[in-house]
Amino acid sequence: MEGKKQHAKASGDNSLVQTTKIRFEEYARIWLEEHIKANREYRTFIHYEQLLRANVFPVIGKVNIQDLREEHGMRLIAKLKETKHAPKGINNNVGMVKSILNYARRKRIIFGNPWEFVPRQKAELKCDAYWSKKEIEQFLLPNNRDTLYPLFFVALHTGLRMGELCGLCWDRIDFALNQITVTRNRDKYEMKDTTKTKLKRIIPMTMSVRSLLLGLMRRQLNPRFVFCEEDGTPVDYGHLYRRFHKCGYGRH
Fold first, then answer.
1. What is the C-alpha end-to-end distance of the chain, expressed in Å?
2. DSSP 8-state class, residue 160
3. Nearest to 221 by CA among 236, 231, 209, 211
4. pLDDT at 13
5. Domains of the chain
6. 85 burial type by CB count under 10 A (0-12 exposed, 13-18 middle, 19+ buried)
7. Distance from chain centroid for Cα 211
8. What single DSSP character describes residue 191?
9. Lower CB count within 10 Å: N or C terminus of the chain?
10. How many Å apart are CA 45 and CA 83, to the nearest integer?
11. CA dihedral sign, ordered 220, 224, 227, 233
């Protein structure tokens, strides 16, 4: 029997592909549990689950995975366009389904990926937007009494990401060498000893950043985290974007 299996794989025989019908929604949840939850960050698992539930399942969730065709992919794209999704968002949803189908193919649930040639959407090129020195001052000056002013200041003068700012600890501030070592990332779920790009970065401190951080260290409301609330609790990543916008981010 084992010899027949080896021969079937080598010859491309699909007779050993599972014939029991299974709905796409059911198999997608298996993929989430077996593949994503086991190998990716928890927030990625949550993000994919939300995309599937909001965008994909209403369109193809009840279709048997063995019956999916390229036209189902085009139908999903059309539906996402109707709901004003940008090309990047459409590609993220379609790419996720392609990954699920590739996983099903490897598990011999289906013989091939029927969405292999579903096209990517082309996005319009956009220019990077940078704040001028005047715009930075216009943002910082009205917020100089905000609890998170130090975080805003360091963010705008170093380019650190939100998760990197939330995960910045005193052991990564080197006042002797005037540099910040970025090795951690903290989101609303956990603290990770890695960055988004998986690379360690060295950020030189300007004199103004160094002076501000020295002042924070003397107060040191939290013995571990650099940025925190007045009561010493670490900054809540989940509310940080909201705080930025409340203070005027996006109006400059």
1. 69
2. -
3. 231
4. 46
5. 14-106 (1.10.150.130), 133-246 (1.10.443.10)
6. middle
7. 33
8. E
9. N
10. 23
11. negative
Q: Which of 175, 198, 204 is nearest to 185 (CA)?
A: 198
In this prediction, residue 124 carries a pLDDT of 74
Please report which helix (H) or strand (E) contains residue 202, including its range. Answer: strand 201-204
Counting every residue written for the chain, the total comes to 252
Phi (first) and psi of residue 181, to 5 degrees? -100, 120
Q: What is the mean pLDDT of each run of 10 residues along the chain (252 residues)?
A: 41 55 96 94 91 97 97 97 94 97 95 95 75 88 90 93 92 96 87 82 95 92 91 86 76 52
Helix (H, G, I), strand (E, B) or coil at 168: coil
Strands 201-204 and 173-174: unpaired
Phi, psi torsion values for 189, nearest 5 degrees: -105, -40
Angle at the Cα of 26 from the Cα atoms of 23 and 32, rounded to 5 degrees = 135
Name the residue among 150, 159, 244 with its Cα closest to residue 203. 159
**Helix, strand or coil, per DSSP, at residue 180:** strand
Q: Identify whether the C-beta of residue 63 lies closer than 8 Å to the C-beta of residue 100.
A: no
CB 154 within 8 A of CB 205: no
